[in-house]
Write a structure and sequence with these properties.
Structural class: mainly alpha
Largest sheet: 2 strands, parallel
Strand content: under 5%
Number of strands: 2
Number of domains: 1
Distance between the termini: 47 Å
Helix content: over 70%
Number of helices: 10
Length: 261
């Protein structure tokens, strides 16, 4: 067997070791999250309660949600025999992945980093850490602001008084997790812009020239994410997306200046 072939199999064995450790860490994190059921669902179901932090804050500011219809709690129901167990498992898996993500990134980076130059390794660390922090910020924004207002509007909306809303647990969890992932992904815009600028694909002047289109796209994306129909919630989502674009433009400018030195 040639040295090149030996090197390939050695790298493959090393990658296998990294993947096994990643799976083990994710499984352990998921098992721990699964064991803290009461705490986990107290956190996940908090936006369904009338005394949630966001609702109390808006009330103190005189911005009581006009579609809440005086309801203090929105009742959730379960419609499947195994639905609650599967929901518990799904939520624990999502939390386990989120908790284990730093180790996952570290493990994969430690596998790839020997093939990088020193300056590439240094920049890669910044992008990885920055990307994770921005993802967490997007998740927090959705949990604290975007999802609560969206949920209260949709849970209280009726086409007729003859059709009461019965919100299933699965629908609630799927909407929360889906919106959280979308907002986390949207918060990667500045990181992606910085990476493209580092590769020479994206330039500051391009982003400045496309600003008006970015505003329109932000409004469209906000309308899709939060189909509540009221201007307040629409702007609540659109403004952060537009600010992310502006932040991306600022980061691209910094990257270009560093490259020109």
């Amino acid at each position: 067997m040639s040295d090149q072939a030996k090197s390939f199999w050695a790298h493959l064995d090393e990658l296998k070791g990294h993947l096994v450790r990643i799976v083990a860490v994710v499984v352990v994190a998921t098992a721990v999250a699964f064991g803290f059921k009461e705490w986990l669902f107290e956190l996940v179901l908090a936006p369904a309660k009338g005394d949630f932090l966001t609702y109390r804050l808006t009330q103190s500011l005189g911005l009581e949600w006009q579609n809440a219809q005086g309801e203090s709690v929105v009742q959730l129901i379960n419609t499947g025999l195994a639905a609650q167990f599967l929901t518990h498992l799904k939520v624990a898996l999502y939390v386990g992945l989120l908790v284990a993500l730093p180790y996952v990134i570290y493990s994969l980076f430690s596998f790839i980093s020997p093939a990088l130059y020193d300056h590439e390794r240094r920049h890669s660390r910044r992008y990885v850490v920055g990307g994770y922090v921005m993802f967490l910020l997007g998740c927090a924004l959705n949990y604290l602001i975007i999802f609560p207002f969206t949920f209260r509007f949709l849970a209280g909306y009726q086409v007729s008084g003859l059709v009461p809303n019965m919100i299933s647990l699965d629908s609630y969890i799927s909407t929360l997790l889906g919106m959280t992932l979308v907002m986390g992904a949207l918060f990667e815009i500045p990181v992606v812009c910085a990476l493209l600028a580092r590769l020479g694909v994206l330039h500051h002047r391009q982003m400045v020239a496309s600003r008006r289109y970015a505003i329109v796209i932000a409004l469209i994306v906000a309308a899709v994410i939060t189909p509540t129909g009221d201007p307040f919630t629409l702007m609540l989502v659109a403004v952060p997306i537009w600010m992310l674009y502006e932040l991306g433009a600022w980061v691209v400018r910094l990257v270009e200046k560093s490259r020109n030195k």
